Amino acid sequence: MVDVLSQNEIDALLAALSSGEMDAEELKKEESQRKIRAYDFKRAVRFSKDHIRSLTRIHENFARYLTTYFSAQLRTFVQINVVQVEQLPYDEFIRSIPKMTILNVFEAEPLEGRMVLEVHPNVAFAMLDRLLGGSGNAAGRVQSLTEIETIVMERIFSRAFDSLQEAWKTVLDIRPRLEALETNPQFMQIVSPNETIALISLSAKIGDTSGMINLCIPHVVIEPIMPRLSQHHWFVSQKKNRAPEEVEILESRVYKTELPITVELGTSTITVHEFLQMSAGDVIKLNKKLNEGLDVRVGEKIKYIANPGTVNGKMAVQIVDTVTEEEDLDE
Description:
It is a peripheral membrane protein. One of its GO terms (molecular function) is cytoskeletal motor activity. With about 325 residues, the chain is of the alpha+beta class. It is elongated and about 95 Å long.
């Protein structure tokens, strides 16, 4: 990861330059010299920046879908956002999560291998408390799950994987399926400790409770579809040209589409009392004059102006003008 200077460090550096303790020319010489960067083979770089950007874009959509899903299920304010997408060894991920947490181990066909959705206990127990009729304030509770709590957790997170499927549709049509729900990270070994994973960290806020949701995707699982995560493939897939046969079929269906056409003789405003007193033979005064054209509506919009008449003893209208989009908007 790139080191970023804090504001205090920047102020100290500027003060050293201005006082003469550090020479700017020497800094330039050091910068121009060839630098050697250490490479840790235990932290192999398997995901390029392009892959990280694509994973970020996918899981930003995942976060939005999850926000909608949990808000509807829990009937309270829920906000989920992507905080960071990084790559690190699987062993480091296991050591970074609490000893007691909610681990949803799942598979996503046609991908081979298992992935993990880790939910911080604060968030998981707040969801559980809310689903069981509480206010959602279960922060700080750390204990093993009962059988009923386990079943409730499995059901809500199984349905949450529908959001993951929807988010990945632009890349691959996956079918996530919950395999197991664990609470102890030491009993969960889905890949070797040195295997590189993509860790998508999401911040979750449920009412006044907040915590992290981490999605662990091993490199070996998505390695077959890595080319689809490139920027080039992303934009090419968005700009697919339709075959001529598809265009012809689409045009033929559009031409055969039926649209309702109505002719409006005019409008009038009356009171409810006048409406209740109406009877056969009464005359309603409209807002149109005899020499004015009638509005012809296609669907809900006025498209033509017509004159009334008859054809073979049946009522008809004759189109005399066309209403442009600008004129329609003015109305």
